[in-house]
Amino acid sequence: MAMSLESPEGRAMLPAGTALGPGLVSGPRVQDSELPPSLEWFDASHPSPNAMSEAAGRRALALAEESRSRGGLIVLLSGGASSMLAVPAAGLSLADKVLTARALMNAGAPIADLNCVRKHLSAVKGGWLAASARQTLTLAISDVHGPIADDPAVIGSGPTVGDPTTSSDALAIVRRAGVMERLPLRVVAHLERGGDETPKPDDPRLVQSTCEVIGNRHIAMDGAARAARSRGYTVRVIHAPTSGEAREAGAAFATQAFRDPAGRPLCMIASGETTVHVHGPGRGGRNQEFALGALRVIESRPSDIGAAALASAGTDGIDGPTDAAGAIVDATTSARAKARGLRPEAALAANDAYDFFAPLGDLIMWGPTGTNVGDLHVMLLHP
I need a labelling partner for 93 at 20 to 30 A (CA). Which of 107, 240, 242, 341 fits? Predict the structure, then answer.
């Protein structure tokens, strides 16, 4: 069996000569000196791929070809694979893919739309990896929350799953996001031409390809709920995924918590994946904007609430292009910010939540966790 792993440095590792998968695992980190000689290790990056992402992707395709005579391919897959494993489609470059993905992310495209476009610019995603092998078994950790929860065709852009979307779908997404003029001309031409369509779910090359989802956001919420109950909280879990603009979702989450009858310590838990439309030059991520968006609601909390605190964090320990996982706000945040001359409205306008929370010591800094099932939101209320 072989796999790829994401370390704190963002490395993808492939044991040579057997099988491969862009998985993210938790647990003790292996030092370089401890690696077995059969292990190939690629310094891939996230959220944007680098040259080693492409090297890992090309090695994955080579291993898939080799597996045809060796029984099959085992793939350990999770969120982050879209960046950690990248091979441009014929006629495109890695830079073309990076610029396209960045334009869509900055426009607030949801992950399903982003991955649809990625698949149609790729030679490894959208079922191409499985099409190169005779037989595949994929074990997936899901960070996909919609429109179809845990959709294996979207997790990691579905390298081992038939793709129900088309190049026309991808082109429509680009147009809807309003980023067409920001894309490389080769990308636009490739999508308009249709390129080589991805393998579809009924493709005979995928008949021996299977996928099982072994972890998702519900498992993360169950763990948070157990921890809260052990500390005496009444727990309310919101099972529908959070989505939409991060700052608005944060305010809605806090408002919903305050609607719960008071009189006891309450912990409300939700999870999902929001988006951020980037307009300003600042630093931050969707979890930091989620927390900052909730601040005004916490300031105006009902009089029967004595204390309130909200945390939002990425389960992978990474929030946007920062070293924070997310942020915390509570009933003291506004006063402490005012004392330092920090204004939440200005931070939101500039997409600068990181530099708002950093001086307050309210960033969540636990480092990369090695796994990803989306974002976790927790609010604590005391009467």
Answer: 107
Q: Are 23 and 316 in contact (CB under 8 A)?
A: no
Q: Lowest-confidence range among 130-144, 168-182, 239-253, 301-315?
A: 301-315
Strand partners for 328: 311
What DSSP designation does 210 have? Answer: E
Structure tokens at 217: 């956001």
Helix residue spans in the chain (DSSP H): 51-67, 81-84, 94-106, 111-119, 128-132, 167-177, 185-193, 217-230, 246-258, 286-299, 333-339, 344-349, 353-357
The span from the CA of 330 to the CA of 328, in Å, is: 7
Residues whose CB falls within 8 Å of the CB of residue 164, separated by 6 or more in sequence, listed in order: 153, 200, 201
- Residues contacting residue 245 through CB under 8 Å, at least 6 positions apart: 108, 274, 275, 276, 277
Locus of tokens 């924070």: 324
Q: Which of 130, 147, 152, 165 is nearest to 60 (CA)?
A: 130
Cβ proximity of 100 and 92 under 8 Å: no
Residue 36: cis peptide before it, omega within 30 degrees of 0: no
Mark 90-100 as b/e (b = at least 16 C-beta within 10 Å).
eebebebbbbb
Cis peptide before 147 (omega within 30 of 0): yes
Residues 6+ apart with CB under 8 A from 308: 254, 257, 258, 298, 301, 330, 331, 379, 380, 381, 382
| Chain segment 239-280, per-residue pLDDT in tens | 999 999 999 999 999 999 998 765 789 999 999 999 999 889
Would you state the structure tokens that stand for residue 147, as one six-digit string? Answer: 């429109």
CB 372 within 8 A of CB 364: no
Q: Which two tokens stand for residue 77?
A: 């897959």
